[in-house]
Amino acid sequence: MMSNTTNPTDQARVLLDGGDFEASRALALEALEATPNDPALLRIAGRASLELDRDDAVGYLEQATALEPDNAEGWRDLADAFLSEGRVGDAVGAIERTVALRPDDVGALVDLAHAAHAAGNSADAIGYLEQALERDFGNLDALRGLVGMYRSAGRLEDSLAAARKIVTYRPEDVVAAMDVAELTLELGHLEDALEAFRWLRDVDDEPDHEIYGYHGMIEAEIRRERWRPALDLAVEATRVDRMGRTTDVLAFAVAQVFGPSGRHAPDRRTIDDSLAASRDEHRLLHASHGF
């Protein structure tokens, strides 16, 4: 139990930091009855309300920033509250105030970039992330953001460069390895793509994930119309494919190498769609596991 002599603001902050949001909010609101213009208490009440998904979080945090307009953390809290209500434009404005107050705050720049992107300002969002990297050239959050935003903007070479930077810092990063493999394939760097998917097989040691690296390698060989290597890889893939997802790919490769037979073989478009779906499935698996 906390001492009765402890400052109520400190008590409320300890409760907030400890995850007891109801108690923190109740104590902050009780203290605000005596000192209604205390910005620290207003921020605590706002943060607790935000965590509890109460609809009064913005109100408390707006009061706090009005009383302490030079408090960068207050503006970041307010931005979070705006985002919780879907007020993306207002969130961008609040984070801009944070950055203006703390221009070297790389985290704020990254937050600003994502808010700007959500608001449809892709060029501004990319600019903010590039600024973040100027201040912290190895910032992984900024690099990850740039991989996706460059890709969405059609700047595939820039996206690939950002993904390669990530794997330089974190060779075990499966999502970055996946980005490198997919982007080299998309750019038509097929020899590089073959190596990237081979490497992805080694990096992703999740059970039953080896098949995705095989499928990427097969896709690279098919795009180069190297049918015999594609067939050899399809044969290898069937040995680890417990779900039979390579059956059609194998039939297609056999038909290319040995010619039509009495058995039905899927056409190229079907195989292209199947391999693209395999890549999408692999990415979804890692997204759902928080990788």
Strand count = 0
Radius of gyration over all CA atoms, rounded: 26 Å
Could you tell me the mean pLDDT?
93
Oligomer state equals: single chain
Our count of helices gives 16
Task: Return the CATH topology of the domain at 171-291.
Answer: Serine Threonine Protein Phosphatase 5, Tetratricopeptide repeat
Along the chain, the helix and strand elements come as HHHHHHHHHHHHHHHH
Set out the fold topology.
Elements: H1 8-17, H2 21-34, H3 39-51, H4 57-67, H5 72-84, H6 88-101, H7 106-118, H8 122-135, H9 140-152, H10 156-169, H11 174-186, H12 190-203, H13 210-223, H14 227-240, H15 247-258, H16 268-288
Helix pairs in contact: 1-2, 1-3, 2-3, 3-4, 3-5, 4-5, 5-6, 6-7, 7-8, 7-9, 8-9, 9-10, 10-11, 11-12, 12-13, 13-14, 13-16, 14-15
Features:
mainly alpha; 291 residues; 75% helix; 16 helices; Serine Threonine Protein Phosphatase 5, Tetratricopeptide repeat
Question: Could you please describe the fold and organization of this structure?
Answer:
The chain is an all-alpha fold. The protein has a domain at 171-291: Alpha Horseshoe (Serine Threonine Protein Phosphatase 5, Tetratricopeptide repeat). It is built from 16 helices and no strands. The protein has helices spanning 8-17, 21-34, 39-51, 57-67, 72-84, 88-101, 106-118, 122-135, 140-152, 156-169, 174-186, 190-203, 210-223, 227-240, 247-258, 268-288. It is elongated, with a radius of gyration of 26 Å. The model has no long low-confidence stretch (mean pLDDT 93).
